[in-house]
Amino acid sequence: MMNSFRFRSIFTMSNIKEIKAAVRDEISKKVANLSAEERNRQSEIVKRKLFDLPAFKNAKHVSIYLSLDTEINTEPILRKLFEDGKRCFVPRYRKAGMEMVELHSMDDWNTLPVTKWNIKQPSFKDQRADALDLGLDLIIVPGVAFSPTGNRLGHGAGYYDKYLSKISKQFDKFPILIAPAFKEQVIDNVPTEETDHKIDVILHAD
Ligand SMILES: Nc1nc2c(c(=O)[nH]1)N(C=O)[C@@H](CNc1ccc(C(=O)N[C@@H](CCC(=O)O)C(=O)O)cc1)CN2
Ligand SMILES: Nc1ncnc2c1ncn2[C@@H]1O[C@H](COP(=O)(O)OP(=O)(O)OP(=O)(O)O)[C@@H](O)[C@H]1O
């Protein structure tokens, strides 16, 4: 009984990882094939939808990812957060895991170094306020594919899922999770595991 159960769960796990990798590849290719104009068009629409949400308007402490070209452009969102006087936190990752540290202004944003993945992020030498000490109302979450019901597939390192588990252990009030997406990233069946957190709102164009 014990053995067959163990065998089955190992089998299922390797299977889902392969499915996740295949979906990741397929959707990444679709996004890579979008023109810069189309990415800008969709980013503008998503931005406006986000600005209209009460969860966005009311948030005081916001975590936001600093986008790559293959993600909805978050630069104008960051600018708006600063204009509205909110405190902004951005991911800082390394092998050991990810934290969210404070970004102070667009000037600060302009001088950030980039990681091997070409993601802008503050240096680990910088002493910055940690969102886990202050609490977050809203997390704007990146990802590769999303389902309309809020399932999320990321880049496969598990950084966000692990971070969200940490938050849920530390705070009674869980932040609202919003994922901006190109419409090509929204698909009905996103493979998930038990450790995957559900997104509250998937925002996409059209
Ligand atoms: N703009 C943006 N920033 C973000 C994320 C994101 O998705 N978008 N992240 C969202 O999580 C974190 C970075 N995620 C990363 C995920 C994988 C690898 C990476 O090196 N992947 C290797 C394989 C690593 C492995 O197998 O363990 C590779 O593909 O070569 C790097 C960063 C934090 N910052
Ligand atoms: N809370 C957690 N505790 C321990 N392991 C976890 C947790 N969340 C995710 N993992 C593990 O991390 C690995 C990668 O997870 P997954 O494929 O879901 O990443 P992802 O959501 O695509 O990536 P990311 O969150 O970095 O964008 C998996 O093996 C998963 O089991």
UniProtKB/TrEMBL annotation:
Binding residues for substrate: 66, 71
Any one Gene Ontology BP term: folic acid-containing compound biosynthetic process
GO MF entry, a single one: 5-formyltetrahydrofolate cyclo-ligase activity
Enzyme Commission (EC) number: 6.3.3.2
Residues the entry annotates as binding ATP: 20-24, 152-160
Record-given protein name: 5-formyltetrahydrofolate cyclo-ligase
Record's keyword terms, sorted: ATP-binding, Magnesium, Metal-binding, Nucleotide-binding
Similarity remark: Belongs to the 5-formyltetrahydrofolate cyclo-ligase family.
Organism per entry: Phyllotreta striolata
Domain of life: Eukaryota
GO cellular component, one term: mitochondrion
Cofactor(s) it depends on: Mg(2+)
Catalytic activity annotation: (6S)-5-formyl-5,6,7,8-tetrahydrofolate + ATP = (6R)-5,10-methenyltetrahydrofolate + ADP + phosphate
Alphabetical list of InterPro entries matching this protein: FTHF_cligase (IPR002698), FTHF_cligase-like_sf (IPR024185), NagB/RpiA_transferase-like (IPR037171)
